Amino acid sequence: MIGGQTKEEVIETNERLRAVRVRLDENYDTAKKALVTLMGRYSESKTERNVFTRYALLKAMIKVCV
Fold first, then answer.
1. Helix, strand, or coil (residue 18)
2. How crowded is residue 41: how many other Cβ atoms within 10 Å of its Cβ?
3. Rounded distance, CA 58 to CA 14, Å?
4. CA–CA separation, 46 and 48 (whole Å)
5. Percent of the chain with pLDDT over 90
6. Residues 6+ apart with CB under 8 A from 45
7. Contact 34, 65 (CB under 8 A)
């Protein structure tokens, strides 16, 4: 026994933790891509001089991101 767990329990715990890590990595990548895209679109929106048009662009960007 290792730390109160059998070898099989340690293997099972390790497999569950690996699966959780994979899911977290996927979620992190999704969030990072969304933020990078949002940052790029925000920078592009600065070329729009009309405040109302730019507001509509920013509002649409946030809706897509959320």
1. helix
2. 15
3. 43
4. 5
5. 77
6. 54, 57, 58, 61
7. yes
